Amino acid sequence: MDRRSFIQSSAAVAAASVVAAAANAQTKANKAKALDVVVIGAGLSGLRAALDLQDLGINVQVIEGRDRVGGRVFPLQDMPGKPEAGGNTFGGGYGRIFDMCDRFKLPLRDYIPRSRLNVTGLYLQGQHIALKDWANSPLNILPEKWKKAPPFGVADALYHEYQLLTNPDDWYDPAFAKHDIAVHEFFKEKGFNDAQIDLFFNTNIAYGTSSHDVSLLMMMYQEIWFQTMSAVAPVLKAVIGGNHMLPDAMAGALKNEVHFNKNVTGIRQDKNGAEVVCTDGTVYKAKRVICTIPMPILRYVKFDSPLPEIQHEAIQTVPYFPMTQVHMVPKTEFWKDDGQGPGMWTDTMAGWVMANRFADDDNTITSLTAWLRGGMSTRIDQLSPEDGKKMVISEIERVRPAAKGKLESVHIKSWVRDPFAGGDYAIWGPGQVKRFVNEVGKPHGCVHFAGEHTGLSNRGMEGAMESGERAAQEAAGSL
Ligand SMILES: Cc1cc2nc3c(=O)[nH]c(=O)nc-3n(C[C@H](O)[C@H](O)[C@H](O)COP(=O)(O)OP(=O)(O)OC[C@H]3O[C@@H](n4cnc5c(N)ncnc54)[C@H](O)[C@@H]3O)c2cc1C
């Protein structure tokens, strides 16, 4: 070994022993404190669980793999308007989210007036088609009844028209299990051919990677749940200044500060409680654990007492939605030059380009986001981040010459590549709702599970809060 390598390796050994010593000290401190509950994950579900437990006088410690709280709530702080790269808006019926915003006096704003201009044009097969011309476009191969609907609205309209559930909770009721089929079968039954399904479902896909891998039962649930949310109040709110202010405020109210950079790789348990093992060597010992790790990451966490087969299978197989966003700043309002509007629904590798309005007024466009979903996300993720950003801009410029040289790409965010998410959120495939939805959140010994994927009556941010509330009740009840 030469002198330079020796110095480098000595420094590495010294650094490693400092880390190990710190982890050791933390392990001892955690054992000495005899925690009641350790919560893994400082997203909305984990923070909600921790606050509920703390309110009950229970000694709870949240540990988090990242160096920030919020998880999949993640505004981009260094971009104009701080666009949300994760959880965007919440509907009128998000009672738990509204209560929490109230508790921390967070100011909210309705985003419905800001989303109206999002899509004024379709970009299909290299052509721009204004929405008003879509019904008569030769590219519109939809049946007569659906010709006036924009392609991205057809599936939702079908779920609405043929809704099979009477309330959101029906989706996990075994009486409805027969509807746990691929949406493709449902569209076929309603008379659509494969080309039409490709146009309105698989182009710029909104859920999953194809009409064959998305459960109809999940989509029916999603539709009726949205209806229920907007029946309470027809709004879509977000926190002024960024949704991260909610998890920040929740974490700030915890007596035990969140421990960051605690990447959990194992959970062991015996009759006295559990030990949570992190990559830096820290071991947290507690009577109960609440685990909110998303399933694509949970796949790699070792349980020394094996999970029941069905729960294990769910964690290993339920897909998460592939999603990559490219966030861009327009140098000029180029959409005024070609009159095509700022938003674009395309069949290109730019996906769905949405205009963000996060300024104080409703009209100023602060940035644009290209949403690449399903296979498009997988394809862009194969490129380097820089090449991915370049590709999206060149795709926009190809179909829209007025945008040439007018876009600066600032961020690319792949949720699949995110080592603490592994995807956007759970997309239950055909047959998976009836097999897994009632099983995946069940406690295993002294480990309780929370997180959006275990929400039963709500989805998204509200589902995360619901799951945290439920897991806290379970854990508190068993102490
Ligand atoms: C692009 C996008 C758009 C969305 N839009 C909306 C929307 O408009 N409305 C809506 O309601 N919902 C939306 N959602 C969904 C919503 O953001 C999530 O459902 C919710 O935030 C999930 O919260 P959670 O606590 O379940 O999970 P997370 O927020 O993922 O929290 C889990 C935490 O665990 C941590 N963690 C993971 N692995 C480990 C490990 N091994 N060790 C330690 N810590 C670990 C993570 O870092 C994370 O902080 C969106 C999500 C995305 C990605």
Summed up:
The protein is an alpha/beta fold. It has helices at 3-33, 44-55, 95-103, 112-115, 151-161, 183-189, 194-202, 216-232, 245-252, 295-298, 309-317, 335-338, 375-381, 385-399, 432-436, 460-477; strands at 35-40, 60-63, 90-91, 108-110, 121-124, 127-130, 236-239, 264-270, 273-278, 283-291, 302-303, 323-330, 344-346, 352-356, 367-373, 407-414, 447-449.
Could you give the topology of this structure?
Blueprint: H1 3-33, E1 35-40, H2 44-55, E2 60-63, E3 90-91, H3 95-103, E4 108-110, H4 112-115, E5 121-124, E6 127-130, H5 151-161, H6 183-189, H7 194-202, H8 216-232, E7 236-239, H9 245-252, E8 264-270, E9 273-278, E10 283-291, H10 295-298, E11 302-303, H11 309-317, E12 323-330, H12 335-338, E13 344-346, E14 352-356, E15 367-373, H13 375-381, H14 385-399, E16 407-414, H15 432-436, E17 447-449, H16 460-477
Bound molecules: flavin-adenine dinucleotide (FAD).
Q: Report the biggest beta sheet as strand number plus sense, adding barrel if it closes.
A: 7 strands, mixed
- Report Rg: 24 Å
The CATH architecture assignment of the domain at 13-71 and 245-317 and 430-477 turns out to be: 3-Layer(bba) Sandwich
Mean pLDDT: 93
Question: Kindly, what is the distance between the CA atoms of the first and last residues, rounded to a whole number of angstroms?
Answer: 55 Å
What share of residues is helical?
Answer: 25-40%
